[in-house]
Design brief:
- This protein is an alpha/beta fold.
- Helices cover 41% and strands 16% of the residues.
- This is F-box domain-containing protein.
């Protein structure tokens, strides 16, 4: 009796641990009414996410709650009236917690294509449904947790939100990126700075020309200054103005994480001045930034406040000495490292320094463009960090000189140096059956939660399925599996997918965005939320 009283209070907390495991949540629905009522909100809090394969027909379930006038409009656009559900068990629109306007729009476009209708779709069909869904969310959601606005112009959506200020009044996570300058976006930024002061994570990117950058920068500065609980922030541009807004701000005692993303540090000389006013700063993350020269490194080293460099993603190395100095001071804290450097001398020095100073790396992404004679540096690095390594990606998609057998060398030597468990392994290589079999045999002691293989082989008829079946399916060493050719076409038929499911292995569809999300949100979850 006591257990039955405690269970409802504990069940919600228990299910939180499985909020990203949709198969388990779906199973929970079938247990009983209590479990169903607890699992359904988690399944529907972020249904438009790209992070999982989905049946896009869930959009039709939302349409049930549209009023008759809105349904009539959709039918006039050619939508089959039979797609509207006759009834639903829950008011699903009330469960939404994470609103990504771009992903909603993209999901609606993809859903529309799945209908395979012969009726002509007018150009603003997607906008009509998108606006209708957001209107539903506004009417039914008490507290939105995250708002993401990416790519393009959504003026009509901004106006709709501005008319219903309570909808985003308590958001904790705000992401604004690639927005087109307009009167509505300026009004929207002004609204955010005046009405939303509980933001804890802020991601802001701007690509407009200089004049628009200044206007957007003003908006960002006002948002930053108005926050009382800001903990994490990502800067893209403009940097100088945004950095200055952190001085004497309300968040000087709350901000603990700063991410610099594609920042050009040339002529930035205020880092010491700003950082020394941040009293609880714990970590910074440098993602694909340029001008990591002596001037920049000395500023970072001279900051009095204690903090850790957690992430370093490099596309270029113009000067190795400052970078080596940076690794000497902060390498012991580094957890996330990516190299896309294509200059051989700097790359060799870089790998030696990373191997020497960095032993706690959890996420490692290697985009290799150099010859096989130095591949031992890669193996030495992986061996050196295997106790902490969780996420690994090796991409040789641009290495086309096959006479060196670079791809084969990696497959033949990688398996035996992997840790006992990996959350994620991504391999973009030219693969033949023999090399893959060697890799899978050598990695039998490693459980890989998600394995993604993109075969870059020029031979489109190479067959690796028997090998996959023998060493992955039957051995149950993988939970999620993705395999595609260089054109991103999956190799699995519906029959294959069902066969793998019998072994509790889920086949996922390959996508660049998925790999990006897994790697950048794995142990880099602090980059977003």
């Amino acid at each position: 009796m006591a257990f039955s009283k405690i269970l409802p209070e504990l069940l919600g907390e228990i299910l939180q641990y499985f909020r990203q495991d949709y198969r388990i949540l779906y199973s929970c629905i079938l247990v009983n009414r209590l479990w169903c009522n607890s699992a359904i909100p988690l399944l529907w809090e972020n249904p438009f996410s790209f992070m999982r394969p989905k049946n896009l027909h869930f959009i039709e379930i939302y349409l049930y709650d549209l009023n008759d006038d809105e349904k009539t409009k959709l039918i006039e656009y050619g939508m089959d009236k039979n797609l509207f559900p006759s009834n639903t068990l829950f008011k699903y629109s009330s469960f939404i917690k994470h609103l990504d306007i771009y992903k909603i729009s993209k999901s609606i476009e993809d859903w529309d294509r799945t209908l395979a209708t012969k009726n002509f779709r007018k150009s603003n069909f997607t906008k009509l449904i998108c606006r209708s869904l957001i209107q539903l969310f506004i009417e039914n959601v008490a507290n939105l947790h995250s708002l993401h606005v990416l790519y393009g112009s959504f003026d009509d959506i901004f106006e709709l939100i501005l008319q219903n200020s309570n909808f985003i009044g308590n958001i904790k996570n705000l992401q604004l990126s690639h927005l087109e300058m307009s009167v509505s976006i300026i009004k929207f930024l002004t609204f955010l700075s005046s009405n939303c002061n509980s933001i804890s994570s802020l991601l802001y990117q701007c690509y407009n020309h200089y004049e628009h950058q200044q206007m957007m920068g003003n908006g960002l500065s006002q948002i930053i200054k108005s926050q009382k609980n800001l903990r994490k922030i990502l800067f893209r541009s403009p940097l100088y103005q945004s950095l200055l807004s952190l001085k004497n701000s309300n968040c000087s005692n709350t901000l603990n994480t700063i991410i610099f993303y594609y920042i050009e540090f040339k002529n930035i000389i205020i880092l010491n001045e700003v950082f020394n006013q941040l009293n609880v700063l714990e970590s910074i993350h440098i993602i694909h930034c340029s001008y990591l020269d002596t001037k920049f490194v000395q500023q970072i080293i001279n900051i009095n406040k204690p903090f850790k460099l957690k992430s370093l993603f490099l596309r270029e190395v113009s000067q190795f000495e400052p970078l080596d100095l940076l690794l000497q001071h902060f390498g012991c804290y580094l957890e996330n490292f990516e190299s896309r450097v294509d200059s051989k001398p700097q790359l060799l020095q870089l790998f030696k320094s990373v191997t020497k100073y960095c032993r706690k790396i959890k996420s490692l992404y290697l985009h290799l463009l150099w010859d096989y004679r130095n591949i031992n540096l890669v193996f030495n690095l992986i061996e050196n960090i295997k106790q902490s390594l969780n996420y690994l990606s090796i991409d040789l998609c641009f290495v086309t000189d096959m006479k060196n057998d670079f791809h084969s060398i990696i497959l033949q030597n990688l398996g035996q140096i992997l840790p006992f468990k990996l959350e994620y392994l991504n391999l973009c290589l030219a693969i033949n059956e023999n090399d893959l079999e060697i890799f899978l045999k050598n990695s039998q002691n490693t459980f890989i939660k998600e394995l993604s293989i993109k075969n870059e082989s020029h031979d489109l008829y190479v067959t690796i399925y028997p090998c996959i079946k023998e060493y992955i399916m039957k051995k149950k060493k993988v939970k999620y599996l993705t395999i595609s050719d260089k054109f991103n076409v999956s190799w699995f038929s519906s029959k294959d997918i069902e066969e793998f499911r019998l072994y509790d292995i889920q086949i996922l569809k390959y996508s660049y965005m998925r790999n990006f999300d897994v790697l950048y949100k794995g142990d880099l979850s602090m980059l977003l939320w």
